[in-house]
User: Which sequence fits this backbone?
């Protein structure tokens, strides 16, 4: 099934909002074997919305539209769609009563401007919204199945899951399957070169998806046996860089390893400023192995809370292998955990010197048999450095745990 | 100046990658007074790329294309563009030598597959890439100014900043100006109702941009006086919810307040798991006021590292106002800082009870004159709860500091 997507809103085009809905919709459609082949973002004027619907490629069977169904003056998707489909509307008294009740339960008086959300088309259906007040619309016109949903992610997602996906699932034949292998610690071109002999032999579609912290390899085919064979060949060639499959995150992969080996961990962070702990605790159930962390942003905190020696800081500096080692050992003994992980570096943009430039990073992992350390030279950008440093630190745990 | 944007890649349509480039480009274009009016995402086949270029609306003057300029087999933007524009290519020996040199300096042998990146069109220009090996392409055809850039964000951004923006800046007349007021702690419909009298009176364009953690209000006009008047009226009506203007983040606004008042802060996190500290330390220069944090994910860490009383945990539980208060006071005294901020809650999806359901949150702020606390009932979703909790906690600091 070929799906088209139109996302509506000047705020998307102007970049005031990043469109995360499109990726989410693409994934869900892919999971039921469909494929989004075209995605247009347009301004929120009636003229632009209608022009966009009309420019939908002919091979699109289902057109999903998101955004512009809210209560305010700039929400004009519904009226534009009704105009294009030439359908009249009527006021839905039942739904209005339902809305009034909903707001009453929350001790809020319903604003009058919500009234336009109770309109419904005569030639179409409404799609229930279990989260908010804006219902979805489904209209079939000129052989195109059009589904309009609100742009608020929580509402759109609930409605896709409850109503739209089950609807599409029935209409899909001969689905394409995907398998993703997630790597970290190797560049795209090096990965491509290592896989070149495999790529030359296979007819199966393979894509490299480089991200800041790693490269995903995606295998696509209608034949699951072909996928499985190619997957094994790739594992054979570059398996040591693969931390997981599907949409697993590195922090989830590490969580599984820690649970399997029955190990606990604590984190001592300087330059990453809480990001490593944040990533650990994004994983549901992480409290089993993640006991806690100390963010020692100032040197005095490194001394009082992590037992880093004053002399170490004076002799080698806060950003040094020696300090990283003492931080890792410090958190390991303070929290009485099996593994102590630390980061110290110069995130930037200021604070660099010739000897210790912005981007310099030391990470250390204290384990039962000693301490593993690594030095990196990252970029000049603060947020990117935090992200890369947290990835390198997490990957160090993976390397340690898979090496044993 | 009206700009069109085509982003290329099956990984964007399938949702394996979230398109963050589009928002970034929209913002940069807006800053120099241009406007992105159309954005299409297409599959990476030659046919689709050419069809997309041909479907560009007639009022688009500059068309930016991103993605598919890398070295691997699925990077076909350049050849598609040359095919569409009917231009031949030649091998750029100088650039190839430059590339070889670059790789040599990094102690990496240049893969042969990078050779296609040294091709250049006869009827067009190349755009330098200061970060990676894929250069950009500029071709003018049928009155449309086409600029193709790599999709890797760091490379695209560097090239936009260095080459493309300066080029566009010269071509812009009668720019539209934007002013954004950022609110938190109030719903979109409540905000719209409070501003309804102002909205009714003005002809200036005003948009509400709801996000998970707040609503942005954007004023747009070619007349900066009109913007300034409307801005003042909005401040008069809902100023207490506005934490800043432009693209300032809540953590940046708080940083400015803390510096102004010469105060230091430490954070004790349970359910937010490091996210509050991460947000503080995303701000360059935050080490002046942010001294550190303790992530007490397990109860024993709350006792040993934050001096929370065992009896408090036993009597009231880890998720309670009493524990939040002791955590806030604990971090305040441990790190010897002016303000101690704490969070404790049930992030979910598991761990909820009838009495203490998933989404329950307590935050506390210990300051010079006492402790401020607040209770929330958030959602059932872990990552959303962490985000909302960190926002509520940061907003508590803002409310405290602006109330004084």
Assistant:
């Amino acid at each position: 099934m070929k799906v088209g997507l139109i996302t509506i809103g000047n705020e998307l085009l102007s970049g005031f909002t990043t469109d995360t809905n499109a990726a989410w919709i693409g994934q869900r459609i892919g999971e039921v074997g469909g494929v989004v082949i075209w995605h247009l973002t347009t301004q929120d004027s009636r003229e632009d919305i209608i022009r966009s619907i009309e420019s939908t490629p002919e091979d699109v069977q289902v057109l999903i539209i998101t955004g512009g169904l809210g209560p305010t003056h700039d929400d004009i998707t519904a009226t534009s769609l009704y105009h294009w489909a030439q359908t009249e509307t009527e006021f839905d008294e039942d739904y209005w009563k339902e809305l009034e009740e909903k707001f009453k339960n929350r001790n809020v008086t319903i604003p009058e401007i919500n009234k336009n959300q109770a309109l419904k088309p005569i030639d179409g259906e409404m799609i229930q919204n279990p989260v908010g007040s804006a219902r979805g619309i489904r209209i079939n016109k000129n052989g195109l199945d059009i589904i309009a949903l609100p742009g608020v992610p929580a509402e759109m997602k609930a409605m896709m899951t409850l109503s739209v996906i089950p609807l599409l699932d029935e209409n899909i034949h001969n689905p394409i399957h995907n398998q993703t292998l997630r790597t970290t610690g190797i560049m795209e071109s090096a990965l491509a070169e290592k896989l070149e002999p495999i790529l030359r032999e296979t007819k199966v579609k393979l894509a490299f998806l480089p991200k800041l912290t790693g490269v995903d390899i995606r295998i696509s085919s209608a034949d699951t046996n072909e996928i499985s064979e190619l997957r094994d060949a790739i594992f054979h060639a570059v398996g040591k860089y693969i931390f997981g499959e599907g949409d697993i995150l590195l922090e989830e992969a590490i969580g599984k390893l820690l649970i399997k080996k029955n190990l606990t961990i604590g984190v001592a962070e300087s330059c990453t400023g809480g990001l490593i702990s944040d990533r650990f605790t994004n994983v549901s159930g992480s409290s089993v192995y993640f006991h806690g962390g100390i963010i020692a942003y100032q040197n005095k905190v490194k001394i009082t809370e992590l037992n880093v020696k004053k002399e170490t800081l004076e002799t080698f500096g806060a950003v040094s292998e020696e300090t990283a080692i003492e931080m890792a050992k410090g958190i390991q003994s303070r929290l009485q955990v099996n593994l102590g992980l630390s980061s110290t570096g110069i995130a930037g943009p200021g604070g660099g010197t010739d000897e210790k430039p912005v981007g310099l990073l030391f990470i250390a992992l204290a384990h039962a048999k000693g301490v593993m350390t690594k030095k990196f030279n990252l970029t000049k950008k603060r947020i990117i450095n935090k992200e890369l440093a947290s990835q390198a630190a997490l990957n160090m745990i993976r390397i340690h745990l898979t090496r044993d």
About this structure: Chain B has three domains: 2-169, 177-245, 250-403. The CA atoms of residues 77 and 273 of chain B lie 42 Å apart. Chain B touches chain A through 103 residues (CB under 8 Å). The two ends of chain B are 46 Å apart (CA to CA).
